[in-house]
């Protein structure tokens, strides 16, 4: 696809203050925070992802949280995700 490049990763020292906790949690839990580093290029998108999409899908709705967490674990193992 012409004209499509990669997002640069934003170093921790240059992250907006509201992303530092998410960065630190990613480093502590998974040893990486690339999603936050790349997403920091558009913090409003990260805000939407965590506070609208992610919150609604995983913590609201008819299916209980435990079932959703088990499904996420199964999907990640099926697709070879490391966490």
Describe the structure in your own words.
The chain has 83 residues and is mostly helical. The chain has one domain (12-78). It is built from 4 helices and no strands. The longest helix is centred in the middle third of the chain and has 17 residues, at 43-59. It is globular, with a radius of gyration of 15 Å. The chain starts with 19 loop residues before the first helix and ends in a 5-residue tail after the last helix. 8% of the residues are buried. The model has no long low-confidence stretch (mean pLDDT 88).
Report the oligomer: single chain
Shape call: globular
- Give the N-to-C terminal Cα separation: 30 Å
Mean pLDDT: 88
Secondary-structure blueprint:
Blueprint: H1 20-30, H2 34-39, H3 43-59, H4 65-78
Task: Name the features.
mainly alpha; 4 helices; 83 residues
In short:
The chain is mainly α and 83 residues long. The chain is built from 4 helices and no strands. The protein starts with 19 loop residues before the first helix and ends in a 5-residue tail after the last helix.
């Amino acid at each position: 696809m012409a004209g499509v490049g990669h997002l640069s990763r934003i170093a921790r020292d240059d992250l907006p203050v509201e992303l530092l906790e998410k960065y630190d949690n990613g480093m502590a839990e998974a040893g990486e925070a690339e999603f936050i580093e790349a997403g920091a290029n558009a913090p409003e998108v990260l805000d939407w992802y965590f506070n609208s999409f992610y919150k609604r899908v995983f913590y609201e709705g008819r299916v209980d949280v435990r079932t959703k967490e088990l499904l996420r674990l199964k999907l990640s193992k099926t697709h070879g995700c490391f966490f």
